[in-house]
Amino acid sequence: MAAQIFSAIFVIIIGVGGCVAYFWGANKLLDVIFPSRGVSGTAAVDNLRRQGLVRPWLFVGPAMIILTIYLIYPVIETLRLSFLDRGGASFVGLANYEWAFGDHDFRNSILNNVLWLAVVPAACTFLGLIIAVLTDKIWWGTIAKSLIFLPLAISFVGASVIWKFIYEYRGEGQVQIGLLNAIIQFFGGQPQVWISLPFWNNFFLMVILIWIQTGFAMVILSSALRGIPEETLEAAVIDGANPFQIFWKIMVPQIWGTIAVVWTTITILVLKVFDIVLTMTNGQWNSQVLANLMFDWMFRGGGDFGRGATIAIIIMIAVIPIMVWNIRQANKETGGH
Amino acid sequence: MTAKTGKSFASRFGVHIAVLVFVAIWTIPTLGILVSSLRDKDQIIASGWWNSFASSSQTEAGRLPAASAQTQKDGKYVIEGNIFGDGAKREISAFGVKSAAPTQYPAGTAADLGDGVSLQVNADGTFVLSSPKAFEGERGQRVYFASSAPPKFTTDNYRTVLFSEGIGRSFMNSLTVTIPSTVIPILIAAFAAYALAWMRFPGRALLIAVIIGLLVVPLQMSLIPLLKLYNGVGSFFGVPSKTYLGIWLAHTGFGLPFAIYLLRSYIAGLPREIMESARIDGASDFEIFVKIVLPLSFPVLASFAIFQFLWVWNDLLVAMVFLGTEADQIVLTAKLNALLGSRGGDWEILTTSAFVTIIVPLIVFFSLQRYFVRGLLAGSVKGG
Fold it and tell me: What superfamily does domain B158-378 belong to in CATH?
């Protein structure tokens, strides 16, 4: 273990040192090849121009190489693999896609993903908005926000253990150590094995993600709410609007853009939800989702890369509209420069 | 600002109550595992953690010694002893001799069992059974009693998971993965971000668009090709395909789009005058970057560092694909997932391990929340 610590420290030094050496060395080399000092005026101007042509690429080069290897090449390769068989050796056309839409697990995953998409972003945004508005009005709002924000720092696996403990089931009449069943039994209800109730278990898994992400929605929306001009609210109060009207007709329309950003961010997260399903049910009891199904196929029986890649492509297709919208927004902001 | 709309006492009171309810729902789950991780493992299964500060009470049944244990005292036949034998001492609150009424008599009182037989059970478990006639038979008197144990808190669970369950080792593995994966992308992204913000070169706009597009590319798209690539490189050079170096680079790659996006928008917002006056003074781009841009960008670098740290520390998927599951490589999240399978019902192990995995993010989060929120606000298009 000590060796591991030393090797980690060693690698950090090598890695960081290597990066620094590259940037510094490349820059130095450029100055040597195209000297701008100590040469005649026109040569210096020429060399400065040449430096200006090369230097940006030295700066963005490492990032471009890594992005190409780790993101751009894989996207193309995954698309290619989705048309190949399990070992990636022979072309099978659309067979993987045909398999997918006929497969019970896959259809179940699609349905569950749609369910997640319908519930989680809406619930997070709505709860986040409500909490942001309420905490704005009280003196201990900052503390409250910190505490609600806190689950965002917890890993999905950690959160799954936390909630599995809440859903823990003991037979009827026994002492319930899971909070949910204890409450149910206290009010005279039947304790349930929550995570294996088909269909409804999806919602018990969604609760975990909502619990984690509401803090995110709350923080973003809270800062947007602060940006609302005071005059609009005052005018509404003078006109005799009640708090609900102020909320729905004055505040919400003004932060519509931020709501959209929060919604899409959580939507992307939901499409990739994996850890929660893996640790809570591993897709049993009809709770499978695409990301977990893909992981399953990557390693099942030595791995079926064709089918795994196909499932990844399906997830990607769902993300593309958001991607296009993001790029358009960014272009608009920078004015295309 | 909106306080004016909630003038009445009732509505202000309602707001406090509502926020209190939300805070309770959002903190109680975490509190549950913290409290449980500190409880004695026998008590975790005997009562809910919300009862952990109360004594855990239970009703038990026991049998007194048979007639052979009797002695004669003051003309009476007496059987004496302690109901717990040599076992753990608990406090008895009441006892009885019928299963229908297990707590008929308070502890310390003498119960009349008929025929002049009396039984007294004291709170500490000692009992006296006396009778004017000799006891007979092989089987002793059946006794029911309600006992309670005082709340018991311990750090034994932490000792167990850290040193015998392998969580301590996984903790080190997580650090080994996380720190380089956080540091390496910062430098690479900072140079790229500066170039994209302040240097003119053909293809810049396209590059920015590509990076924004890559922000939302699902990680799933990269897994299979990279797994194949790593396996290929591994077998070509005869080295293991699952290495720390591999996962550092993978996390660097997956973190770069967000890093460049976040840093670029910040660096582009730095005042132009500073850069230009430095350029007039003869500073090169490299000098401007190192001496002016980097120090000024500290807040955004900190924001990204926190994000990346939390992301890598909490990641399960990348670790499961690119690292092995042996003790020398398994990270905390993967270890916790494995424990959920192998120690499914041992809540003292699971709650304690879970708390160990979340403690570092919680510390980072609380001490650096300001930077974290700033990064969140600046980069909320991130898909990750």
Answer: MetI-like (1.10.3720.10)
